[in-house]
Amino acid sequence: MKITEEVLQQFSPFDSLSADYLSKAMSRVSVRDFSKGDALFQRGKKLSETYYLLKGGVDLVAADLSRIGVNHTSLQARHPLCNTQPARVSAFAKTDVQALVIERDFLDLVMVWSESANIDDSPQLDIIVDEQASTDWMSVLLAAPLFSRIPPGNIQTLFQRFVPRSVVKGEAIVTVGKQGDYFYVIKTGTAKVLDSAGYCKAKLRGGDYFGEEALVGNTTRNATVEMSSDGELMCLGKESFAELLHKPLVNYVSVAEFFKLQEDTRAIRLIDVRLPIEYKQQQLSGSENIPLSYLRPKLADMDRALLHVVSDYGGRRSEVAVQLMVQAGLDVLLLRNTDVQEVEL
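The structure assignment produced for this chain is given below.
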């Protein structure tokens, strides 16, 4: 079977992708043939690929040997045959089968590219500033919630690794759709954040930062940042950003630790940042679905008294969500290894 964009859009979550990201996915999908009786994948194995049923029928066999039959004409065939890691079922071909296959990690990357494209790449929106204002950039930077949670030793190393860069009015520092390599802080001067249509979404001044989301999600830039005046930027490379700014801020909690947290008196809000259709197929009991692309507008209204826990079902999207929530001053944990075992929360 020839795979076209129309064919690919019959499956979830490809049906949610824009033309650009659908094209990226198209470049990495393949068709694999299986004979009757063949195993497509086995329960308990960590899957490096995601399988969709194009033609034929399969049996999904669980640990208790119960079986669920899936035919390529059924609604269930719109979704991956297995979406857990490691696989909780084995898949055996009941007939000759054709399967559409894509690397799990690349699909995760495409999804975070797609959903991050709808998120402004600056934590401050619609800020009006005096273009001539003189600001102590270090003081502003260190007062931000993002930096208040960084270990003191990291702060010292951080400032040692920043590299200055002189910039001029009209210069595009990052461009929408381009890969992200640096995290930037404005030392002097001002800049504006432009969406893909060229609309100004924010104005930035000394101490404001940008570019972090593309580094967290390993994605392309979702906005253009253009200098409104001459100035100077402080630039931090991708590796240093991950070491000093991202990893120290992402606090993980295991399923067992989460159960213990529930025994405390503090209220917990469990969040899943995948698309609604993904959430519908597999979810943790008691979780709330807030897709990543809808998260930022809700941050200001989130209850600071709650402990927020983000399910790792969203892969890189979950990490981006945690970063956004930390920047907003929320207390947040990333629930990991939710696919390793059946979890009823």
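Interim note for the steering committee: The radius of gyration is 22 Å. The CA atoms of residues 202 and 260 lie 41 Å apart.
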